[in-house]
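sorry for the late reply, my laptop died twice this morning and i had to redo everyting from scratch. anyway the thing you sent over, i finally got around to it. pasting the sequence first so we're on the same page, its 146 residues, then the predicted structure underneath. double check i copied it right bc i was rushing
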Amino acid sequence: MGRPERHLSPEEGPVQAFAVALRRLREEAGSPTYRALSERAHYSPTVLSQAASGRVFPSLEVTLAFVRACGGDEEAWSGRWHRVGAEISGRTAEPPGPAGGGPSSPAPGAAEAVSSAEDGGGRGGPWRRAWRRAWRRAWRRARSRP
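ok and here's the structure:
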């Protein structure tokens, strides 16, 4: 059995409320492990766990895969995801346009859906960049010496 999830309160904010709802959906599906969900959703257990962590706003694709794996209503969750994205970005919720109907614009809240690896978070993000910079400097110095 995995670690227990940290307590989340829906009053903390829209991302946390969304995560609480994802957790509730998972409980209604019989509380499958994230590993079992990952086999159905075709996303890693880590990605699915992060979606329900309340720390990041998951992408629409991850959300729908999570919902599909739990047997939820994908259309209802898509609408919920767009509303939360609009709330996060401070815009009014607009339903997505018809498929193939012109140039696509970023989804509301897309900036908040950035993965932890892209925003420098996660395990050692800023440290990893600092280490690479230092290594490159040392490499250049070593190559410039006769």
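The two ends are 58 Å apart (CA to CA).
thats about all i looked at so far, will dig more tmrw
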